[in-house]
């Protein structure tokens, strides 16, 4: 309850606490690392089963911090749209608006899911198991975890995961947190969409099982 209240106060679009009301990160002369609302947004969370450290937002391009933006789309409110090219995930809102999150995406174009899927499962502090393809590509790195890794501070999925299914089958792609927040905005993952931990907690709270997810095609072009 305390976490839900904190997230409501810091992140809800109605209160707009921590979310900009236009396309810029905030209507403020302060840089994000000094802006009190951003500092609170990415502060440590201590009432979880495991601690969620504060984020050093000076390591992250300000455009990849959570903010409300104008967003034109045919998708219905409540849909998640992932744009791997721009390294953004949008939670579509009404009135031509969206809540935008910076993300990290697959380090190679072939690693990325594309098309439409559905969030068929949600998990808090999820267990992580590398896919057979990951183990085959990098056996020394992933082989020791073939049996899985329990949720916790060192788990690469972070505090939350949203499991993407297509036609009733697990795609093995996830929207999840990260132990490497400085990689947000880059092509770094094995195909999953990684969020800042505070952001995936926020998104997890906002979307139910059954949420539609649209992942746009990736070109592999660098963000300008």
From TrEMBL:
Residues 1-17 form the signal peptide. SUPFAM superfamilies: L,D-transpeptidase catalytic domain-like. It comes from the Bacteria. The active site is at 176 (proton donor/acceptor), 192 (nucleophile). InterPro entries: LD-transpeptidase, LD_TPept_cat_dom, Transpep_catalytic_dom. GO terms for cellular component: extracellular region. The keyword Signal applies. The keyword Hydrolase applies. Pfam families: YkuD (PF03734). GO terms for molecular function: glycosyltransferase activity; peptidoglycan L,D-transpeptidase activity. Residues 78-216 form the L,D-TPase catalytic domain. GO terms for biological process: cell wall organization; peptidoglycan-protein cross-linking; regulation of cell shape. Keywords: Cell shape, Cell wall biogenesis/degradation, Glycosyltransferase, Hydrolase, Peptidoglycan synthesis, Signal, Transferase. Pathway: Cell wall biogenesis; peptidoglycan biosynthesis. Belongs to the YkuD family. This is L,D-transpeptidase. It comes from Ancylobacter pratisalsi.
């Amino acid at each position: 309850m305390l976490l839900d209240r904190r997230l409501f106060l810091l992140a809800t679009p109605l209160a707009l606490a921590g979310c900009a009301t236009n396309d810029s990160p905030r209507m403020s002369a302060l840089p994000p690392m000094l802006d009190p609302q951003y500092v609170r947004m990415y502060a440590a969370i201590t009432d979880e089963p495991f601690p969620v450290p504060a984020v050093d937002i000076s390591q992250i391009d300000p455009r990849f911090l959570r903010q409300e933006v104008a967003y034109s789309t045919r998708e219905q409110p409540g849909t998640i749209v992932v744009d791997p090219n721009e390294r953004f995930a949008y939670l579509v809102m009404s009135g031509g608006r969206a809540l935008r999150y910076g993300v990290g995406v697959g380090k190679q174009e072939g690693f990325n899911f594309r098309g439409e899927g559905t969030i068929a499962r949600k998990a808090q502090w999820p267990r992580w198991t590398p896919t057979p393809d990951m183990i085959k590509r990098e056996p020394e790195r992933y082989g020791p975890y073939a049996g899985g890794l329990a949720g916790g501070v060192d788990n690469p999925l972070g505090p939350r995961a949203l499991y993407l299914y297509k036609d009733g089958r697990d795609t093995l792609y996830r929207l999840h947190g990260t132990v490497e927040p400085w990689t947000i905005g880059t092509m770094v993952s094995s195909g999953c969409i990684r969020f800042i931990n505070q952001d995936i907690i926020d998104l997890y709270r906002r979307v139910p099982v059954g949420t539609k997810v649209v992942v746009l095609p990736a070109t592999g072009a660098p963000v300008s």
